[in-house]
Amino acid sequence: MSKPLYYTFGNHMHWVDMQWLWGYGTLPGSARDMLSLIAATGAKGNVNFDGVGYERLAAEAPDALGELRQAVDAGQVEVVGASYGQPYGLFHGGESNIRQRVLGARAVRRLFGVWPRAFWEEEFDFFPQLPQILAGCDYKCASLFFQWTWSTPHVTCSAVN
């Protein structure tokens, strides 16, 4: 019996350093590019911005946040990750890492009406206590694979019997 294969993609951007580097259109442009791909292909996507990025999007481009919120409500997009300030968790202490997860998830709940359930971050954000912190913040699943966006833009799959 064959099993269905579902394809999704992750859209990663953050306000911390990216918007400073590329300007105020970075986050709304990234969200709209993702929504265009969803409309063209029917694929469902994941969005991974930092919590402060969602707050900046609400303040600076509320129309783009509204479009993203509609896609989340329609089940086309899932918010994943949701740290608050795009941390490199291995360089921070426990309390800071807890605050990153809690404040980021609260920003998502406030702006999208959902609590993130999947953890995925592109940055160097793994440290030994991360699984326990994620469980304590009510994440249901996690990808702990670190991907260098500019160097390894691919997905590796393996079949499980």
Task: Describe the structure concisely.
The chain is built from six helices and five strands, in the order βααβααβαβαβ.
Task: Find the count of extended strands (DSSP E, 2+ residues).
Answer: 5
Structural class, judged by helices and strands? alpha/beta
As a whole number of angstroms, the C-alpha radius of gyration is 16 Å
**Main beta sheet:** 3 strands, parallel
Low-confidence segments: 155-161
Beta-strand content:
5-15%
State the shape: globular
In whole angstroms, how far apart are the ends? 12 Å
Helix percentage range: 40-55%
What would the average pLDDT be, to the nearest integer? 82
Helix-strand topology string: EHHEHHEHEHE
As laid out across the biggest beta sheet, the strand order is 1-2-3
Helical stretch count? 6
What report would you give on this structure?
- The chain contains 6 helices and 5 strands, in the order E-H-H-E-H-H-E-H-E-H-E.
- With 161 residues, the protein is an alpha/beta fold.
- It has a 3-stranded parallel β-sheet with strand order 1-2-3. A two-stranded parallel sheet has the order 4-5.
- The longest helix is centred in the middle third of the chain and has 19 residues, at 94-112.
- It is globular, with a radius of gyration of 16 Å.
